[in-house]
Amino acid sequence: MRRSLLALLVLACAGFAATPAAALTRIKDISTIQGVRDNQLIGYGLVMGLQGTGDTLRNSPFTEQALQSMLDRMGINIKGVPLRARNIAAVIVTANLPAFAGTGSRIDITVSSVGDATSLKGGTLLLTPLSGSDGQVYAVGQGQLAVSGFVVQGQAESLTQGVPTSGRIPNGALVERQIPGQLRDLPEIVVELDNPDFKTAARVVDAINAYTRARFGKTLARERDLRTITVQRPANLSTARFLADIGDLGVVPDTPARVVVDQRTGTVVIGQNVQVSTVAITQGNLTVTVTETPIVSQPAPFSDGETVVVPRTQVTAEETGGYLSIVRGPDLQTLVRGMNRMGMRPSDIISVLQAIKTAGALQAELVVQ
To answer: Are residues 163 and 212 in the same domain?
Structure first.
């Protein structure tokens, strides 16, 4: 029994090694586990200790109200007292609560100004409850802000570097409540692909089944659709260790034939599986030059004439290129080689790709951003 199991493991490893190592991608890098995700938290708080760069309380009444409420809870009554402090700022605190984060663990938080504060540098966030979408408080944040941007202002000029009204506090929040549910409570293991594709899902299922067949003697994975894959939990292995094992399995993801064009920056990204039918392409540049050379007309001496400006316009048109080239497909290398031979610029390539798609010769999805 041990020899047969060892032989199966050797055959499975040999099958994985037959594919080039550079083409293999771990399953954990192209997928996520359904139910294992972060949870977003948000809270409203105050930052103190600013060097005159805080909110103007007259323009930010919510900052003054929050300060009064905080001092009232501390037993200090300032109602009716005008406040002119510039060392305080109202902020929104956001954080991501990782999956299965236990009580007492720490998470990073991001602090952003709400009012008209010019900088949060040097400030300290006061105790701020962080709530989830259900209204429950899951963490509290407090600590010294780390602000990378700065602002320097004089009487006639100011200099701003980065974003001084936003900062982070590493490990600035303490988890007070754990998200309900544990990994072992999941009814089934569902693997979700980051880039949904039927062929990629089938390859992931084949890789998992090859592993489970060699180790457990049966297949445990089955594709549900192009995005999700269901995997049965083995009886004699913990869920965490099983996910760690299948996450290291290598597959070759299949990429769709897609061309992405960004007209603002002139960026063109062409996928590997893009195919082009044989087409004839002509591309030329038309340059129109308009030159204004006005002439001043002087009247004869001792005459009643007036000096006038006579307009003179010269228009010339020059068209370069325009020769016809045949780009024979069907692979990406031929398309790129043909466009480079024609000396096309990124803007020209974008126009040609759109025209090829309209002609029905581009056998790929064209995404224009």
So the answer is: no
